[in-house]
Amino acid sequence: MDDEKLKRFIEMVGSLAEQFVKLEKQVAELRSSVRALQSIEAKRLCPDAPLEGLKQLQELEQAILSTDPNEKQRQRVSEVIEFLNLQKKTGGGQT
């Protein structure tokens, strides 16, 4: 790889890293907003027992996620990655 291509590659990686940082911040803000809305809804569902309302919301969320094919695929990928990391840590079963 010549110097110019290497320079462009490094710039692209830097730009991509910046975009990931921005995305990470936006995801954190979104999660905070969702948590705030969950708190409000939990109090609305069960004014005298907001923790029970939160439990109901979590059960609903799990029911929705269990029917989402994308979530199922992400779960499978997570399991494979976890398995591969475990194999890597333990030497992959090699003797």
Short synopsis of the structure:
The protein contains three helices and no strands. The protein is mainly alpha-helical and 95 residues long. The longest helix has 43 residues, at 3-45.
Keywords:
mainly alpha, 0% strand
Layout of strands and helices, then pairs:
Layout: H1 3-45, H2 50-66, H3 69-90
Could you please describe the fold and organization of this structure?
This protein has one domain (3-90). It has 95 residues and is mainly α. It has helices spanning 3-45, 50-66, 69-90. The model has no long low-confidence stretch (mean pLDDT 88). It has three helices and no strands.
Tally of structural domains: 1
Q: What structural category do the secondary elements indicate?
A: mainly alpha
Instruction: Using the CA coordinates, give the radius of gyration.
Output: 21 Å
Query: Could you give the order of the helices and strands?
Result: HHH
Reported for the largest beta sheet, the result is: none
Strand content: under 5%
Gap from first CA to last CA: 39 Å
